[in-house]
Amino acid sequence: MIDFHSHILPGVDDGSKDVKESLRLISMLRRQGVDVVVATPHYYAGNEPPEIFVDRRQKAYEQLSAELPEGSPRILLGAEVEYYEGISSLQGLDMLTFGADKLLLVEMPMRKWSELAIKELKTLSCVKGYTVILAHIERYMRFQNPDVWKRLRSFGILMQVNASFFNGVLTRRKALSMLYKGHINVIGSDCHNVENRPPAIGDSFETIRLKAGEKFLSDFTEYNRSLLFVE
Ligand SMILES: [Fe+2]
After folding, report:
1. R_g of the chain, CA atoms, integer Å
2. Ligand 1 geometric centre to CA of 69 (Å)
3. What's the CA dihedral at 42, 44, 45, 47 to 10 degrees?
4. How far is the CA of 6 from the centre of ligand 1 (A)?
5. What is the pLDDT of residues 63-88, one digit of tens each?
6. pTM, 2 dp
């Protein structure tokens, strides 16, 4: 199974602090049935240009790779790109994508999204050819008019939720209902550390298996793999 959102690389952002912690997170993901994990450290355009970020990310990845035990999940390099006004014209955005289809994980602001923001997402998807994935959309639902989601989906934008959305007693029903409707495309652990934000994505896959059935889960996983072009 695939984890589409994680902060497992050492020392790149507010996620894993060192290689030792990264190895623990990866081992937890492995035990939870994850065989492919997308490392998505935070990218803030105001802090650094993409090439500097990619360089830092690469160094962290190489440090980690040298210590990875046999049988660890495969790590793909991505980013969680914070939305800002003007994102659709950022030079070097390609460097922050992952998978063959230019997947771009975008973190939106915690408020009602402006028409400009929606227009920029549309431009990224329909004009620039990115496969935009909105990160942990469950956080933003209460701020948006319900019709926004339909519009965004019509632009080809994909939706990611965190595993906690499936794991929470109060949110599980909503998560499953959205999943059945095809309103959730991918799931991420969004793990940051072993203490208070460890990965718990295995439980959400288990919930899907129990409630939606084995076939549903295997189709979902197959679709997730096709997004990344991995076997
Ligand atoms: Fe994140």
Report:
1. 17
2. 25
3. -120
4. 6
5. 999 999 999 999 999 999 999 999 99
6. 0.97
198 and 29 Cβ atoms separated by less than 8 Å: no
The rounded Å distance from CA 180 to ligand 1 centre is 24
DSSP the chain: -EEEEE--STTSSSS--SHHHHHHHHHHHHHTT--EEEE--EE-TTT--HHHHHHHHHHHHHHHHTTPPTTPPEEEE--EEEP-TTGGG-TTGGGG-BTTTTEEEEEPPSSPPPHHHHHHHHIIIIIS--EEEES-GGGTGGGS-THHHHHHHHTT-EEEEEHHHHHSTTTHHHHHHHHHTT---EEE--B--SSSS---HHHHHHHHHHHH-HHHHHHHHHHHHHHHT--
Question: Distances from the Cα of 174 to the Cαs of 144, 170, 207, 219, in angstroms?
Answer: 16, 8, 13, 20
- How much distance in Å is there from the Cα of 23 to the middle of ligand 1? 18
- Of the chain, the percentage scoring pLDDT greater than 70 comes to 100
Q: How far is the CA of 105 from the centre of ligand 1 (A)?
A: 9
Residue 161 CB coordination number (10 Å): 29
Question: Would you kindly state where each structural domain of the chain is located, as residue ranges?
Answer: 2-228
Ranges of the chain with pLDDT below 70: none
How far is residue 8's CA from residue 138's CA, in Å, rounded to a whole number?
22
CATH architecture of 2-228: Alpha-Beta Barrel (3.20)
Residue 31 near residue 66, CB atoms below 8 Å: no
Pairing of strands 2-6, 36-39: parallel
